[in-house]
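Is this the right way to post structure tokens for a design question? Let me know if I should format differently. Anyway, here goes:
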């Protein structure tokens, strides 16, 4: 497949006509559609196409359907920075324009005969990799493919890393030996986090009578688990938010839905005697893959948003149709890269199909349930108008009847009032 502007794609097709059958796409979206219907053996893509050639290569690299297809990236303005980014995206070969037909043919031959180069493997396995390892025949190959996808996700150009200071705060907050003084000292190393915590503890959400100026007192009042939740939430909100894509996700509605799902999940978890704070985080973070796709692949995600406008298609189905992967897969891989706990990784990766998770099905099912309740009550926006059905296996797992579900929905309205106060506190 040749992805380039018409004048150049015609020329490239002529170069290859004696030896290869070619199809042409003029931009990234056309290329993705063609990939769905007739995957090629090699993709030759120009850097400056609408949709960005590098982003197309990244999308191919993180897709379980297409990441085996080699990509040759061409550019009239090569630079070492672009070459390195292309390598991280999994590009097989980089070719500067102008080039001779023999040079292009040689790169294509090389791409066809050599396997797609995977990034250096990560030390830890994601839930998908663990599932493959526990599976049957062919598991090592599947495990390797999923690990390669995870390593490509972390190298998406512009994707933030999880800050070391935040990671240390999380580590301390979960330690049995940590003290309020030690945690406060670590928080002071991040002024924005310090300001957020003091703002939150003095907000109407906590309703304290006296203003708190001491970070140590704030830590004691909030508790270590609440601090850990706040740090994780702040990193996702600040690290992945703060961008504009007018035709993409309604970000304000998206974060509202995320926080609402977190509060409902915590409340439901207490009723069902499941770990409440983990459920809160799982609800808060379950859809982070949507933000990754919307922010870093805007030209492609706009097409997804267009498909769901009619209210007849879920956003996950639209993602699969347009991109060949879903936000759950991307979010799960990001969670693994950011070293979220294994149970959170499972929640993010399997929240649309909880019974397919190999572990933590109860927690995953609880977040799935809370997500649907929040969507039913129209608190925020999940990106589409189609409210998903609750998985029947989840209803069975929690022995829920329709009446029981109605009771959960009624009590969730109070939880969403608390979520509103929390959102106001975060600003």
């Amino acid at each position: 497949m040749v992805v380039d502007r018409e004048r150049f794609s015609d020329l490239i097709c002529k170069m290859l006509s004696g030896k290869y059958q070619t199809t042409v796409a003029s931009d990234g979206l056309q290329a993705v559609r063609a990939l769905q219907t007739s995957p090629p053996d090699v993709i030759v893509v120009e850097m400056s196409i609408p949709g960005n050639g590098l982003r197309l290569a990244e999308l191919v690299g993180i897709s379980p359907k297409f990441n085996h297809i080699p990509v040759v990236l061409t550019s009239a303005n090569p630079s070492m920075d672009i070459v390195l980014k292309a390598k991280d995206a999994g590009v097989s070969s980089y070719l500067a324009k102008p080039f001779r037909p023999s040079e292009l043919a040689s790169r294509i031959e090389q791409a066809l005969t050599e396997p797609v180069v995977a990034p250096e493997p990560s030390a830890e396995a994601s839930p998908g990799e663990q599932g493959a390892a526990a599976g049957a025949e062919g598991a090592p190959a599947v495990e390797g493919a999923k690990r390669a996808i995870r390593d490509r996700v972390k190298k998406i150009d512009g994707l933030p890393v999880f800050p070391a200071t935040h990671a240390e705060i999380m580590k301390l907050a979960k330690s049995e030996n940590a003290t309020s003084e030690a945690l406060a000292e670590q928080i002071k190393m991040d002024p924005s986090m310090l300001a957020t915590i003091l703002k939150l503890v003095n907000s109407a959400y906590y309703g304290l009578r006296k203003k708190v100026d001491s970070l140590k007192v704030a830590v004691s009042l909030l508790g270590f688990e609440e601090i850990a939740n706040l740090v994780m939430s702040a990193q996702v909100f600040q690290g992945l938010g703060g961008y504009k894509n007018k035709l993409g996700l309604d970000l304000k509605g998206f974060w509202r839905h995320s926080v609402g799902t977190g509060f409902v999940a915590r409340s439901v978890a207490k009723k069902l005697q499941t770990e409440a704070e983990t459920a809160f985080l799982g609800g808060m973070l379950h859809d982070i893959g949507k933000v990754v796709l919307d922010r870093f692949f805007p030209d492609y995600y706009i097409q997804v948003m267009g498909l769901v406008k009619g209210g007849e298609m879920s956003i996950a189905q639209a993602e699969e149709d347009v991109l060949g992967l879903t936000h759950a897969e991307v979010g799960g891989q990001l969670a693994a890269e950011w070293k979220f706990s294994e149970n959170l990784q499972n929640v993010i990766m399997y929240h649309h199909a909880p019974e397919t998770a190999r572990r933590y099905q109860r927690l995953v099912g609880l977040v799935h349930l809370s997500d649907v309740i929040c969507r039913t009550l129209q608190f925020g926006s999940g990106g589409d108008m189609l409210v998903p059905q609750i998985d029947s296996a989840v209803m069975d797992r929690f022995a829920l009847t329709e009446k029981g579900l109605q009771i959960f929905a009624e009590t969730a309205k109070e939880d969403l009032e608390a979520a509103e106060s929390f959102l106001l506190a975060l600003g």
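Format looks fine. Someone answered above. Worth noting: Residues 305 and 343 are 29 Å apart (CA to CA). The domain at 2-113 is CATH 3.40.50.2300 (Rossmann fold).
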